[in-house]
Design goal:
Helices cover about 25% and strands about 25% of the residues. By secondary structure, the protein is of the alpha/beta class. It has a domain at about 110-265: FAD/NAD(P)-binding domain, CATH 3.50.50.60.
Length: about 425
């Protein structure tokens, strides 16, 4: 019997545990460790922040779902991963031994790297976690009673820009529905070198599509932006040229602000030589395996991926949902290969299929693979995108509640479209 431990129960950890249970032998044991008793569907957080969704509607209780699938669940925070001991030390003093470990923790939110940033002692809101989004909703309720300027976007070092665009457009849609849009100047601030870069050097015509959308909605923007500090009602921003020089400074007034922070690895894995990079992200090769600790794999946002290019203002690389699922499938197959005495040869495609909702429309794109150069590079917009996002939310949450990783019909549809999760040449 092999014991596989999955650390984390988010968009990477839950599918990882379900896929492992499906792929591994019946006698193998799968255990999930999470500091939260619930899974929440992160892509719905922007809706929570404007009261289009209630937090409970996008949550799933983990223990009963995992129990139905013969997966052990430990509700506890990890204190330290100990790869040299093949164990995870928990905050409560217990330790969990493993034969194989999959790190799927997601990131730590680095609000502290910019003075005044974030909802905990700072002056900006967050939609990175459902609890943050719920808190943002309370602030939003006050804001719409006494509206004023909005500053929204993503700071230097951020690596997930899609939610910033989504939330800007969703807020704008909500303001129009309330008939107060004319009272709210909006400015989008981003570290990206251009609108629609997304940390990926764009996908299809995302630059043109998103610039057009922002012009139509009267949202101004500042790119190559470095947020210096945030004070109550004022954000201090520098525009930075390619050579690193500051070309312009801004003092942007706001009554409401949401800025995505930079990410870093969680404390439980940071500073472990050979396991993580200087930011604490887990090092993985093309099979999702750590090159130093061969029985450790990683999936999701916690994986170290080098930026597409180096810019004067740091821009990270996003890890989208479909890309994460491709990591999950490769990792599960490769762990099974090791158990069977074979070499891990399955490679995730890192294909990206993304639906960005704008409240009354949106943009969708397909990047195959996500990191250029690509075999497929396509984007489109339209009112249908919002409906597609709503449908996908219901579908994905339904899968999680049933404890289903990938139904056969989902795989069949993607195979028909030529969108694969694992490279066909793999075992």
């Amino acid at each position: 019997m092999a014991h596989i431990v999955v650390l984390g129960a988010g968009l990477g950890g839950v599918p990882m545990a379900l896929e492992a249970r499906k792929v591994l032998r019946k006698e193998d044991k799968v255990t999930v460790i999470s500091d939260s008793p619930t899974f929440h569907f992160t892509p719905s957080n922007p809706w929570v922040a404007v009261d289009w969704r209630k937090p409970d509607a996008i949550k799933v209780e983990l223990a009963p779902m995992f129990a139905k699938k013969q997966i052990d669940f430990i509700h506890a925070a990890a204190k330290k991963v100990q790869p040299e001991k093949n164990s995870v030390l928990l905050e409560n003093g217990d330790s969990v031994d493993y034969d194989y470990l999959v790190i799927a923790t997601g990131p730590e939110l680095a609000f502290d790297e910019i003075e005044g940033l974030g909802p905990h002692g700072g002056h900006t809101q967050s939609i990175c976690h459902v609890d943050h989004a719920a808190g943002s909703k309370l602030v939003w309720d006050e804001f719409v009673e006494d509206p004023g300027p909005i500053v929204v976007g993503a700071v230097q070092g951020a690596s997930c820009f899609g939610p910033a665009y989504e939330f800007a457009m969703i807020m704008e849609t909500d303001l129009r529905r309330r008939k107060i849009r004319d009272q709210v100047p909006m400015t989008f601030v981003t570290s990206e070198p251009y609108i629609g870069h997304l940390g990926l050097d764009g996908v299809g015509d995302t630059k043109g599509l998103l610039e057009s959308e922002m012009r139509d909605r009267h949202i101004k923007w500042i790119t190559s932006a470095r947020v210096k500090k945030v004070e109550a009602g004022v954000m201090h921003v520098e525009e930075v040229a390619a050579d690193g020089s500051v070309t312009k400074t801004h003092e942007l007034p706001f009554k409401y602000s949401m800025m995505l922070p930079a990410f870093r690895g969680i404390e439980a894995v940071r500073d472990i030589e050979g396991l993580v990079n200087p930011r604490g992200f887990v090092i993985a090769d093309h099979t999702q395996q750590n090159p130093t600790f061969k029985n450790v794999f990683s999936v999701g946002v916690c994986v170290a991926i080098a930026p597409v290019e180096t810019y004067a203002v740091p821009v990270g690389v996003p890890k989208t949902g479909f890309m994460i699922e491709s990591m999950v499938h490769a990792a599960a197959k490769n762990i099974r290969a090791l158990i069977d005495g074979k070499e891990p040869r399955n490679e995730a495609t890192w294909n990206a299929v993304c639906i960005a909702d704008f409240g009354d429309g949106g943009v969708t794109f397909v990047a195959m693979p996500q990191i250029p150069p690509r075999n497929v590079n396509w984007s489109a917009d339209g009112g249908w995108v919002h409906l597609a996002k709503v449908a996908f939310e219901k579908y994905f949450l339904g899968k999680i509640r049933r404890g289903v990783g990938e139904p056969f019909y989902e795989k069949a549809v993607f195979d028909m479209l030529g969108v694969h999760k694992v490279k066909p040449k793999a075992d």
